[in-house]
Design a protein that fits this description.
Blueprint (H helix, E strand, L loop, with lengths): L2 H12 L11 H4 L2 E6 L4 E6 L11 H11 L6 E6 L12 H6 L4
Parallel strand pairs: 2-3
Antiparallel strand pairs: 1-2
């Protein structure tokens, strides 16, 4: 599998993770700030949450890591949580904005 194909599979895995309070996946919500797939199939994700006081702060990053680890070919996963820059609804995809009535 090429690096691009693996990246695509990782994005699909991330799209299976939902914020329990919002019926949109975390990728479309714009919670993923950076996604890197390194040549040895190690995956790095820089992400945020909708709020620093999000009740799912412990579960969402762990679920993202678990879903990525399930992707065939992934060697290792590192998920880093940041609140800089702070999350805004402007980070959502158009699909998410439509789903949530922002458009």
């Amino acid at each position: 599998m090429t690096e691009a194909e693996l990246r695509e599979e990782v994005v699909k895995a991330i799209k299976r993770v939902y914020d329990p309070e919002i019926p949109v996946d975390v990728y479309e919500l714009g919670l993923i700030y950076d996604l890197k797939v390194f040549p040895v199939n190690n995956v790095y994700v820089l992400m945020t949450l909708t709020s620093p006081s999000c009740p799912s702060a412990g579960t969402i990053p762990a679920e993202i890591e678990q879903r990525i680890r399930e992707v065939e070919g992934v060697s290792d996963v590192s998920v880093e949580l940041t609140f800089d820059p702070p999350y805004t609804t402007e980070m959502m995809s158009e699909e998410a904005k439509l789903e949530l009535g922002f458009m």
